[in-house]
Specification:
This protein is an alpha+beta fold. The protein has a single domain, classed as Trna Endonuclease, Chain: A, domain 1. Helices cover 41% and strands 23% of the residues. The chain contains three helices and four strands; from the N terminus they run αβββαβα. Strands 1-2-3-4 form a four-stranded mixed beta sheet, sandwiched between helices. Strand 2 and strand 3 form a beta hairpin. The longest helix is centred in the first third of the chain and has 16 residues. The chain is globular and about 35 Å long.
Length: 97
Amino acid sequence: MAKREDNLETRFTKACKIKGIRTIKVNPREHDGFPDRIVFNKPFGEIHYIELKNNTYYERTHNQKNWASFIKACGGIYFLLDGDEEVEDYIERFIGE
């Protein structure tokens, strides 16, 4: 993950921690392309699968797109958050910081 994406992920996980929302990271070596974070959003009664991007030319890999399709087909809630603005919008809407 690029340095900029690391910063987005740090911001994201910090907001979750402050509000007591549980989030985990899956080992990417074991599950190539799986979303960056799984968020157990108890206040909403939902589990969110979050893919973070840093608002650059970098696009999702083939495996990332396949996981997104698989998650949605199974009724999962998938978010592609691309850059600061989308991360902040998610935090405001679903975490309430």
